[in-house]
User: Fold Immunoglobulin superfamily DCC subclass member 3 from Lanius ludovicianus.
Amino acid sequence: DFGHSSELAFVVEPSDDIAVQEQPLILYCQVEGIEPITITWRKNGVMILDSENAFMLANGSLYVSHFQRVRGDGSSDEGEYDCMAQNHYGLVVSRKAKIQAATMSDFHIHPQNAVVEEGGVARFQCQIHGLPEPVILWHKNSMPVNTDNERYTLLPKGVLQITGLRAEDSGIFHCVATNIANVKFSREARLTVSGSHSTVYKDPMILVGPENLTLTVHQTAVLECIATGNPRPIVSWSRLDGRPIGVEGIQVLGTGNLMISDLTVQHSGIYVCAANKPGTRVRRTAQGSLVVQAPAEFVQHPQSISRPVGTTAIFTCVAQGEPPPQITWLRNGQILETSDHIKLKNNNSTLSIYGINQADEAIYQCLAENSAGSTQASARLTVLWADGLPSPPQGVRAETVSATTIQVSWEKPLQNTKEIIGYVLHIRKAADPIEMEYQEAVSKSTFQQLVTDLEPSTSYSFYIKAYTSRGASKASEVTVVSTLGEVPAMPSLFIKVINSTTVQATWEPSIKLGQHKGFKLYYRKVHLSQYTGPVLLASNVTAYNITHLDASVVYEVKLLAYNQHGDGNSTVRFVSLRETVERTVLNPPCDCMKDEQNNKTSTTGIIIGIHIGVTCIIFCILFLMFGYRGRLVMCKNVQEQLSTPQIPRSQRSATGLVLNGATRRDRDDRDLNGKQLDMNELERLFPPSPSQEQQEKGIMSTHSPSAPHDETQISTLPLDEFSIIEEQPDPLPKNPRGSSPAAPAPHHGPANEG
Assistant:
């Protein structure tokens, strides 16, 4: 009996209807499920007792013998009816059926006399309210209008249009309204067709534009648009949102009325009727809105489920419609009240029942309702309970370990402990709803659990369940304990120089600070031991200006957050007011683009300064070099083995070293194609210190003939051993007898005139 047949469900539900006065009315209700099933009826929420006027048939339907809109005692058979069915599994309630009496009012708009010239357009209208909607027909001279005449257009709302008028169209018109309640006739109106067809030009004009309509899906909408003008205007339709109207189910009635059959929600929108003068851009427009409603219908029905005691049951019910339907849940036919145990989420689409017990076993219904209609669906919750399950764990205790840790301990159940496979610890902030609860599994041999990553100064609730392969025990007693408090974390601090006597301390609010009451700000001159402060600031303050400072010293600024547990660690920054405004010595607020531009400007200035200095030195050297009226100097006689001449320091020519350095610099400059000089080249341009000369002298004099061939040796020689060489691309001198090579001749280029 756990199949579909055990679920109590409706096969046929009562539907909306319009009843005729003094006529019988039958409301149908058919249910399937496990017998015995009891069916009862309600009207407007009140139980209907069998009487001569209303009683239940054997098949469960309700029979009203003589429907009356108003009875002698003031009661009425109109209202909302629903059917209830119950068996030992639960109770279900059908959708509400709205029952109304058939009526027809008097005409509130009658046709009016009209005089129209030949070739023009005539329009008659009559309106009347009724349930159901009356059908309106037109008569001319007491005879039904010939609807086969294409110049005659009858619209459903009681409008008669006659285009291209002729003399024979003159006559007396009236309309006849009919429904199941009555038949009524309107007043008569005379149509007179005068004169002949005019050829005078007339601008396009819309006589009647579309009305705003609210209809239900699958109905038919007629948007009226009748226009006049000479020449006859062309009527066209469009949507204001630019979307295409489409062609399926679209039809044009008469000369410009738009009819949309089998409406859908997508047909909703604002429609624009335009009357255009042929061959021109002259036009007139009128617009009306169409709202298409859709009754509530289910996208996802709730499903019957079976769950063990102590677990969570979830039902999902998703409905759609236009306007969006409201969802209501019933439990055995009664409105479901939410609590810590029962929660509704996602606009009531999800029903969650936590920690279920046998009392939660019932039939749950989802009712979806909007202005266009209602529907319902049901599902049953079966609570599984096995004999021999463990009793609840005993002696649950919780002890605070730190600001973020609590240790929970317990004792094993008193009964049925052999089949226990483990325990589940249920954890929740005491202030949170039950759906925020989370669990931690523990082995069967463990009777304590360290719960970490908790929030400081927060109360938590704990309870334990013992689990077997057949289900869970009932929950233990709930214990509540709070974590310890802790001081706030370090705030982030930034210092900004406002002017020569003022700095601004700013910091950012952050959840990482934890619970705090406010901030304390201290500052002092770095050479002093005592701080100024504390300056107490509220927790919502994020900036403070420190004024009347001395621009000639460095200041230390300290900020910390505090709460009832004490002061947190402080953040320290140093600042000097000597620098330019908005720059700090340490940890400034970063204006990355500005700093990058400043760095680029400063670096560029240094490079330009070095270039200018080097250029001045080079010109001085060139001036000295050409002061001896020589261009390039080289050794005149190359010995078989080159060695540094041993001459007294007083006779040594410093100029020779300078010239050699300049020559090498010229070569390097040409090799590097004008690239920047490095610092080594700058050093070569300056004569070495005496100690360096002595070291160089020793090194040169002891240089081995077997030195590498690619090493350039620079010697200082007297002027009488140099000769002037005219510029020419001479090859390097050969190395006789394999001795060490002399310094290679520099690459010659055009000589500079002194």
